[in-house]
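Review form for a predicted model. The reviewer records the input and the model, then writes brief findings.
Reviewer: anonymous (R2)
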Amino acid sequence: MAIACVATRASRGVEAPAVTVEVHLANGLPAFNLVGLPEASVKEARERVRSALVNAGFEFPMRRITVNLAPADLPKQGGRYDLPIAIGILAASGQIPLTSLKDREFVGELALSGDIRHCPGLLPVIVAARRNGRELILPLANRADAELVDYPAIRLCNQLVHLVAFLHGQQPLPGLEQGAEWLDDIQTSALCLSDVIGQYQAKQALEIAAAGSHNLLMLGLPGCGKTMLASRIMGLLPPLGYDEALEVAALHSVAGLNIKPSEFHRRPFRSPHHTCSAISLVGGGSVPKPGEISLAHRGVLFLDELAEFPRKVLDCLREPMETGEVVISRAAAKLTFASRFQLIAAMNPSPCGSMGPGNRSSPDQINRYLGRLSGPFLDRFDLSIEVPPLPPGTLTQEGNNGETSQSVAQRVHRARERQLARAGVLNAELSGKALKNAGFNSADLSFLEQSVNRLGLSVRSFHRLQRVARTIADLENSHMVERRHIAQALGYRAMDRLLANLGQQLGR
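Model under review:
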């Protein structure tokens, strides 16, 4: 019977479901039918495969060819099915042995000349093949993706002729030579916290945010160093573990982005412009792709000029910030992308950029400006600080600008180890039940509750203040959370104080 089955994999978010390419050759008028819910890019494979087989020197059977991509209810898109379709035709027509297809998967796009081209988004395919223990045939141009996974049962090929010779047992195909030895070379950030002049309170808040993975909002005049501080947080964060780095790399691969081997363990830092749309920030599209919040997974999402973002765009972040994932529903599919990121934001306190002497904005104008940020969104920030202008003479003063990022990072690393040893998660992810066993006494919790009620804060803020206080205690290697730690956490509520003062000016 002139039939062959070739294994390959589709793309569905960060998953790579198995697909079987079934090829049947029947008598009748020559035809090439492709079924199994293929999209336009897959349907065009008929002409690419035909030309590739002829130009590579193989016989294209002049028979009725039916190609089925099973399962039929799974949408298929892209040129990744070219290679398995061509292999299936060669196997069904007897030009390669059927036994050579056993326990092997094929992925690749074909050129008209028979060359095998690079395919985007193959990292989930490699991870799935490793999980199932199948040998995987990839384009040679996807070697960088293969090295990230470090799966030895991978064969790389750039021409269809070489692949057919390999399936006949006539010549070998190259695999991975060096494995993942280069992954041990972890590069650190070149930006140092000591480059920032002054701003010692802001540096301390940045250290607390890095230690507990807390969301941080910075308020200050233009040019006071908010953006400079935000970029230095990457030097305080520990590198990603291998599994975490592979998870991040898979999201970037699906989005059509490649992570350099030297940056494999580096946490992502995404800084979208304030003109970005909700889809580019959260993800979506006709073929759903990860947005900025998913590309910042396990890393930092920095939103500069926060008040310039449309309010509807910012409110789209509220659910992912709580759940750590974003669910994109479309008619064809429902995809889930991980988005456990740390949000760092910076903004001016008024439309003209200043508060106090020289302020050109009225209280009503400031209220409308701050009204672009909804209360539930601001409630997601664990810390909000004011970054003041530098005192006169600071810029020309010679002296020490404080600790380096390396010394601060060591304290952050020790604090994170204490958190993981105690609860298995960082303090920003502690549940309400876990906070009851986090080292608080009842008197201090009563003090915190009274303070929250006096400031008019929400129950969510009550728990977030507990998490920040726990992080401050961890940085000091304190088993119990003392009242001074809670008082320090209450001091990082600059936005609440700004809104309260504004309400007094407006007579509310």
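Findings: The chain has a mean pLDDT of 90.
Further findings: The longest strand covers residues 18-26.
Recommendation: see findings above.
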